[in-house]
């Protein structure tokens, strides 16, 4: 290090004096430093403004690899057994309908003899029922049921005399209403006669279908009473005769009977 000039060795005209002992190349005089009059306080540097940093995007989760299952071997399907052929059923026989059977059946024609036989059978049935009822009441009165089928002479004879009287009174008192309307028909009537010939009762067993004729038959029986007393052979064993007959109001306005 070079020593500088001594205090007061500098020429005031040049402001610098070269030393004869120093080489010219090394004679560099430093400029005086200006010292501040007052020490200025050091200013701390302002911090640089923080820059807003954008949030880093979250990394998308990577899809986990799906485990690929190995295909399982399918069991071989067993062949279905061939169906056993079933025997074919025999064809049902074709039923042909009889055309005549499909036609409405006509009611059979009934002859007069059939009607008469049917009436006789019904009268016999009613007579048997009345006779049974009379037997049940034998303790009170002895009864005898008679009709056209009765074969005992004493009873059939009394019934014939009774019929003639009723027919005569009936023709004399034929119902005018039936004659005016032209009504005709048959009915079955039950008449009960006591031993002294008095009338015990009368009722319609089967109607003619016309109330005028039914009421006329009852009225004729009542008008013809009293009847003849029972003969001794009948009165000895019978207290009441139950007579069942078929009455016929004919087209000629006459009263008739079944035979």
TrEMBL record:
Listed Pro residues bias regions: 72-88
One GO term (biological process): transmembrane transport
Keywords carried by this UniProt record: Cell inner membrane, Cell membrane, Membrane, Protein transport, Transmembrane, Transmembrane helix, Transport
Chain ranges of the TonB C-terminal domain: 159-258
Record bears the keyword Protein transport: yes
Chain spans, region Disordered: 29-94
Membrane-related topology note: Single-pass membrane protein
Bias-annotated ranges (Low complexity): 29-45
Tagged with keyword Metal-binding: no
Record GO terms (molecular function): energy transducer activity
GO cellular component: plasma membrane protein complex
PROSITE patterns linked to this entry: TONB_CTD (PS52015)
Cellular compartment(s): Cell inner membrane
InterPro entries linked to this entry: TonB-dependent_transducer (IPR051045), TonB/TolA_C (IPR006260), TonB_C (IPR037682)
Family: Belongs to the TonB family.
NCBIfam families to which the protein is assigned, alphabetical: tonB_Cterm
Stated name of the protein: Energy transducer TonB
Record organism: Thiohalocapsa marina
């Amino acid at each position: 290090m070079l020593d500088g000039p001594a205090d007061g060795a500098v020429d005031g005209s040049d402001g610098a004096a070269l030393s004869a002992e120093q080489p010219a190349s090394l004679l560099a005089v430093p400029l005086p430093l200006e010292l501040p009059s007052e020490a200025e306080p050091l200013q701390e540097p302002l911090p640089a403004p923080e820059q807003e940093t954008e949030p880093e995007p979250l990394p998308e989760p990577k899809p986990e690899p799906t485990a690929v299952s190995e295909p399982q071997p399918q069991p071989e399907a067993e062949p279905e057994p061939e169906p056993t052929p079933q025997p074919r059923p025999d064809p049902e026989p074709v039923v042909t309908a009889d055309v005549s059977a499909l036609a409405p059946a006509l009611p059979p024609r009934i002859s007069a003899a059939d009607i008469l036989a049917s009436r006789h059978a019904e009268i016999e049935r009613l007579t048997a029922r009345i006779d049974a009822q009379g037997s049940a009441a034998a303790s009170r009165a002895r009864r005898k049921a008679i009709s056209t089928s009765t074969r005992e002479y004493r009873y059939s004879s009394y019934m014939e005399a009774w019929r003639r009287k009723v027919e005569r009174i009936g023709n004399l008192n034929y119902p005018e209403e039936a004659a005016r309307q032209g009504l005709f028909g048959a009915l079955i009537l039950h008449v009960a006669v006591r031993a002294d010939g008095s009338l015990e009762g009368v009722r319609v067993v089967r109607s003619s279908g016309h109330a005028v004729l039914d009421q006329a038959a009852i009225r004729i029986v009542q008008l013809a009473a009293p009847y003849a007393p029972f003969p001794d052979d009948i009165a000895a064993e019978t207290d009441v005769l139950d007579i069942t007959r078929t009455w016929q109001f004919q087209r000629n306005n006459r009263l008739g009977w079944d035979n």
